[in-house]
């Protein structure tokens, strides 16, 4: 793929607002100090070519899935130091010539050209994923941000594909990692690129809204432990999907419990009545999309 950065982002496959933390100051300090040194040395008109690549496949694997390109293009399209960015940099680097900050405040990525492999492609070590061409100072300022947008995305997408390959095409894979993610930004990125890598959905509601990912979920241990027994359930009836016949679903569950426990070599009283009540009540609430969290109690052990 070859495209002007500022035009390619405008025609992306999805329309959503980019995360507000993805901005020019999401970089390492030395990128800005190098930019000043370039400027001080009179290298404003110099052109450069940077290749972005990785050295080893993750997870000791044989391949990597390239992710993060769309975010990079959106970043380039919106690249501009705000007035508050410039004010902060003046305070942080007080010994730098004032004229440099005026120069920095007028920079855009309009003269940057990006050559890239298609996002989602299988890629390999030391093969450039992105080639950045344009003014040396601007290209230098982009480096850290492009790396952070691509490295984590590619890691998550690669891991997702490995899960998909291991599970096969017929198993539904859902991503439930938000509560353990590296903060809200890591959580959103993980949901997005797990889906790109072959997962079928996410529990992350915001990711579903922003990236059009199907949202799915079960329930928490708290829901299971909030029930004591089936007697506390106020709603007991459920209609058969095909016949429309209304049955006492709770009684049906209790009857089936008696049938199943001998098969598992269990005594009926060993299983949790609260867990049964929780499952039954959730099935009544969502009869066509019931998905149970089964590890609150270890009944067999």
List the SSEs and their pairings:
Elements: E1 2-4, H1 5-8, H2 29-40, E2 47-52, E3 64-65, H3 69-77, H4 83-92, H5 98-105, E4 113-116, E5 122-123, E6 130-135, H6 136-167, E7 174-175, H7 183-196, E8 201-202, H8 205-211, H9 221-225, E9 237-239, E10 246-248, H10 249-260, H11 273-285
Parallel strand pairs: 7-8
Antiparallel strand pairs: 1-4, 2-6, 3-5, 4-6, 9-10
Helix pairs in contact: 2-6, 3-6, 4-5, 6-7, 10-11
Task: Tell me what the structure shows.
Helix content is 42%, strand content 11%. The chain is α+β, with helices and mostly antiparallel strands. The strands form four sheets. Strands 1-4-6-2 form a four-stranded antiparallel β-sheet. A two-stranded antiparallel ribbon has the order 3-5. It has a two-stranded parallel sheet with strand order 7-8. Helix 2 (29-40) packs antiparallel against helix 6 (136-167) and helix 3 (69-77) packs antiparallel against helix 6 (136-167). The termini are far apart.
Strand content: 5-15%
Count, helices:
11
Biggest sheet character: 4 strands, antiparallel
Low-confidence stretches: 1-14
**How many beta-strand elements?**
10
Q: How confident is the prediction overall: mean pLDDT?
A: 91
Helix content range: 40-55%
Q: What is the straight-line distance between the termini?
A: 56 Å
- Please trace the helix and strand order, writing H or E for each element: EHHEEHHHEEEHEHEHHEEHH
Q: For the largest beta sheet, what order do the strands appear in spatially?
A: 1-4-6-2
**Radius of gyration based on Cα positions:** 27 Å
User: Which structural class do the helices and strands define?
Assistant: alpha+beta
Overall shape: elongated
